[in-house]
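Researcher: Batch entry, complex prediction.
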Amino acid sequence: MRRRRGFLLIAALLITVIFLATGLGIMSAQASRYEASARLADTLQAKNAALAGLDDVRVKLSKDVRFPPRKSRLRGQEKFAYSETLTAPGVVPEVSYAVIVDYGLEEEIQIRTKWLPYRWGLYRVTVNGYVGPRANPIAQSMLYAEYHIGAGAFIRFEDRSSL
Amino acid sequence: MRTASRGLTIAESLVAMGLVAVVMGALALLFQRSFGVLRQLDDKERVRQVSRMGLDRILSEVREATRIVSAGTDIVQFEKIDPSASAVPPIPAPPPPPAAPEPADDYTPPSYLPEEAYPDSSRLIVTYRIQGEVLVRQVQRKTGGASQSQAVVEGVNSFVATVDDATPNKVTVAVSAKEKTRVTSLKGSVLCPCIVVDPS
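Model: Structure tokens for the complex:
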């Protein structure tokens, strides 16, 4: 008669492996869900950072008569860029935005007795929101807007990033 | 004393098999229940996701609006600039005459209104509506012509768009999707940067 010693041990091991594989499968499915949620949260944070940048540039354009600075224009440039980090130093991930104001469609004329020149036309504004370092971000969002100098308001807005 | 080569009796085998069956049955019941709960959560999540997709889709495009044409139950219609359009550049100031390098105080600059930067031919009318249980997006040029429709999200039952009277640039949308017996509703608001609010 054939010896069948150790049969129960192998059967127990087999059942353990099956349960382990099932458990790991369920856990990995949940892990991918958590990862997707985290990615979505980062993307939304980048979008909100870009919206904060857009509001910042809107306030600067409507309130600050010296914005955007014209010195660069005298040097033949048509764009002015600045950036701001929204998180405290050392906070990870860093959240920031970068703004580019293109004043290629701005026209101006100096009136004889006026302190400031009369301006009309448009400013083309591009705002990028970042989560993580700007050189290698975890998530990025790009907004584009056009500011009408005469109306003192945006007349065009586009979300150029996908959610 | 029994030797190892003798094997198991039928009674021993039956008891062992019975025990294994009881344990496996209990485990199967446990798994069935947890899979049932998981399936329920999946269904709930799917409906929530449909609502979220519909809401995000409407809100992200409404944010680009330059004017809200109409807002109500199962319809929101607004005007926006064609993404492929470029602004008509402003007329530059005339070169100053040598005798008077700077114009006088009563100088009138060339006209450059927002409507001149983007005439009607650069503007689109976008409509979101419900057809059956599908959220449909329809686009037409402001100057007329053929309209294009596309299904955006399936499974959306209804939505309501409202414009705040006090702040006309604030649009609120509530999207509802139905799961077997329960309705999931999500609500969100956006401020449209291109709609100017009268400070008075």
